[in-house]
Amino acid sequence: MEWKLFADLAEAAGTRTVSVTVEDDATVGDALDALLGAHPALESRVFTDGELSDHINVLRNGETATLEDDAEDGDELALFPPVSGG
């Protein structure tokens, strides 16, 4: 499956897309662990005190996801901070 990263998260990882491999019965949280294993610089931007930061949004196939949701081969996952503008 593939993660799409946005804004400062893409900058920290040095790329906008990251493919990860997880077990067949994986969750979005497992896929996030694989992402952070490949790009540890993201951890401090994604987690606060061991919990997913309130300001981080996680999507699975374009829909809001939780870390407990199932993740399947071929899913497109996205991770981004809030975006604002004028």
What does the model show?
Helices cover 26% and strands 26% of the residues. It is globular and about 30 Å long. The protein has one domain (2-80): Ubiquitin-like (UB roll), CATH 3.10.20.30. The protein has three helices and seven strands. It starts with a strand and ends in a 6-residue tail after the last strand. The model has no long low-confidence stretch (mean pLDDT 93). The strands form two sheets. Strands 2-1-7-5-6 form a five-stranded mixed sheet. The chain has 86 residues and is an alpha+beta fold. The protein has helices spanning 7-13, 28-38, 43-46, and strands at 2-5, 17-19, 47-48, 51-52, 57-60, 63-64, 76-80.
Q: What ranges have pLDDT less than 50 throughout 5 or more consecutive residues?
A: none
Q: How many domains is the backbone divided into?
A: 1
Rg over CA atoms: 12 Å
The CATH superfamily label reads: Beta-grasp domain
- The whole-number mean of residue pLDDT values reads 93
Helix tally equals 3
Helix proportion range:
25-40%
Q: Proportion of β residues?
A: 25-35%
CATH class annotation: Alpha Beta
CATH overall fold name: Ubiquitin-like (UB roll)
* Topology order in helix (H) and strand (E) letters: EHEHHEEEEE
Based on the structure given, which CATH architecture is correct?
Roll
C-alpha end-to-end distance: 34 Å
Largest sheet: 5 strands, mixed
Number of strands: 7
- Could you state the oligomeric state of the chains shown? single chain
Order of strands, main sheet, comes to 2-1-7-5-6
Please state the overall shape, judged from the principal axes of the Cα atoms: globular
